[in-house]
Amino acid sequence: AARAALAELLGNMRAGIAFTGAGISTECGIPDFRSPGGLWSQNKPIPYDAFVSSRAARNEAWRRRFAMEEAFGGARPGRGHAAVAGWLADGRLLGVVTQNIDGLHQLSGVPDERLVELHGNSTYAVCLDCNCRYSLSWVRKEFDDAGGVAPDCIHCDGPVKTATISFGQAMPAGEMMRAHEWAMECDVFVVLGSSLVVYPAAYLPIEAKQAGARLVIVNREPTELDPLADLVIHADIGDVLDGVLPHPAAF
Ligand code: OAD
Ligand code: ZN
Predict the structure, then answer these.
(1) Which residues are found with C-beta within 5 Å of the ion, ligand 2?
(2) Span 164-192, mean pLDDT?
(3) How many Å lie between the centroid of ligand 1 and the Cα of residue 105?
(4) Which long-range contacts (CB under 8 A, 24 or more apart) does 140-148 make?
(5) Which of 67, 164, 182, 248 could form a disulfide with 120 if both were Cys (CB 3.0 to 4.6 A apart)?
(6) Complex ipTM
(7) Helix axes of 136-145 and 55-72: crossing angle, nearest 10 degrees
(8) CA-nearest residue, atom 14 of ligand 1
């Protein structure tokens, strides 16, 4: 019954938002943050202030990033990403709003102008002072050559960090604005694989609902926003979305 209700909602969707979290990438082999065995159970997150003020914190952050790269750098989009890319190709979505930093929506064919990355992107680095961009491979080489010491910006000596948003770091204003505007206009807001405990990201489904959208949540576990939703499905994203709407293979 839930599947039929989902098929009907998605079938009628004309200006939707797919709002994704780490749960859409677990079937690609990338662990989420808060499930048992998730990333935050292995390591505490390094807050922004610590990264900026401490060389040791920067070294540790980069050590973790390169370990992630070795474990998951080759990850490919999964069934959830394919479904979302299909909805977009079918003209059903205003856009995709993701909290993920793994770049898998881009790999599944979602163009930048239809993708908001609320928490940034971990596939390149930036200088926090002058904003210039560095490739991971450049950082890696400097890091290894220095025996595990994070490099500083070659132009201004500023700290170089993955282009992601850490706890305590300002959200990207333009991305927030774009997501907010879509949330005000969307007809269906589909949450895929997020615990919905991190704000301000989790305000978006609330705003969309208040502005009149239907709210759908597909997540293995209950979330705090389940009571607000028109349809809640507690199951694996890939299993739920696979074949619910016919969609073209996007990649
Ligand atoms: P979480 O780890 O908090 O939540 C992921 C949710 O996905 C959990 O509730 C899982 O039960 C569910 N899940 C996992 N695999 C699934 C699957 N195959 N099908 C369905 N559900 C599945 O991750 P996020 O909500 O994305 O931010 O976390 C939000 C933010 O917290 C992240 O962007 C990150 C983190 O700290 C920053 O680092 C700023
Ligand atoms: Zn710089």
Answers:
(1) 127, 129-130, 153, 155-156, 158
(2) 97
(3) 15
(4) 140/66, 140/69, 143/62, 143/66, 148/59, 148/63
(5) 164
(6) 0.98
(7) 120
(8) 23
